[in-house]
Design brief:
With 228 residues, the protein is an alpha/beta fold. Helices cover 42% and strands 23% of the residues. α2 runs parallel beside α3 and α6 crosses α8.
């Protein structure tokens, strides 16, 4: 399978994690493995993924909490839970946290592949690529932190890029302020909040050459990137 879809795999069982990673890579996926929820969240915020596979029971941060954090900053990315639990209540909790599907251990590798393929087909994520975005008249390349407008190219700082990437992935939707602070700054305290406001101002300045683009303040909630 020539796929290239980037998958974040969070699994604390070392042997199973490496087995899943090897299998999925053999099927054409790009797989980044994290062995606890906290590391997985850091990888998610610093990477570019099209699919998440999350074990429910993990140290540092469990899969349910991780899914909720991911959903705060990316409402569309598909999430598949892996769990040893088969109780109806546990599955309902997983779906309420934003899961697209649920696979109970033990499972066959081919069943996992079939679930991933079905979810990607249903969501259309298998044809999406995040190499670049078109925001109004601006071309944005998050992987190399570049903005292109009217033959002019601007290089973004790391935090400018992380913040703009989240805004773009959630275009026309509210980007939660506290979740964004935790994702990029690691803590949603007052001082980090002031720092984020400075970076929002910098992004507005960078984007103002295109009058169709606006970053709105949503009082008490966060920010919204809109293209008129």
């Amino acid at each position: 399978m020539e796929n290239g879809t980037s998958i974040l795999l969070a699994e604390d069982d070392v042997n199973l994690g490496h087995l899943l990673q090897t299998f999925l890579k053999s099927k054409g996926f790009n797989v980044s493995l994290a062995q606890n929820g906290k590391i997985a969240f850091e990888k998610f915020n610093n990477g570019s993924f099209q699919f998440c596979i999350l074990d429910v029971m993990m140290p540092e941060m469990d899969g349910i909490t991780l899914a909720k954090e991911i959903r705060e900053i990316d409402k569309k990315i598909p999430i598949l839970f892996l769990t040893a639990k088969s109780m109806k209540e546990d599955k309902l909790e997983g779906f309420s946290a934003g899961a697209d599907d649920y696979l109970t251990k033990p499972f066959a590798m081919e069943e996992l592949l079939a679930r991933i393929t079905a979810i990607l087909r249903r969501t259309g994520e298998d044809v999406k690529h995040e190499d670049s975005y078109q925001i109004g008249g601006i071309k944005y390349e998050p992987e190399i932190r570049l903005l292109h407008l009217n033959e002019e190219t601007k290089k973004l700082t790391t935090k400018e890029n992380q913040l703009l990437h989240l805004l773009v992935k959630n275009q026309n939707e509210i980007l939660d302020r506290q979740a964004t602070l935790r994702a990029i700054w690691g803590d949603d305290n007052y001082f980090n909040g002031r720092s984020m406001d400075v970076y929002i101002a910098k992004l507005r300045k960078l984007l103002r050459e295109d009058e169709t683009i606006e970053i709105l303040n949503v009082h008490g909630k966060g920010f919204k990137l809109v293209v008129k």
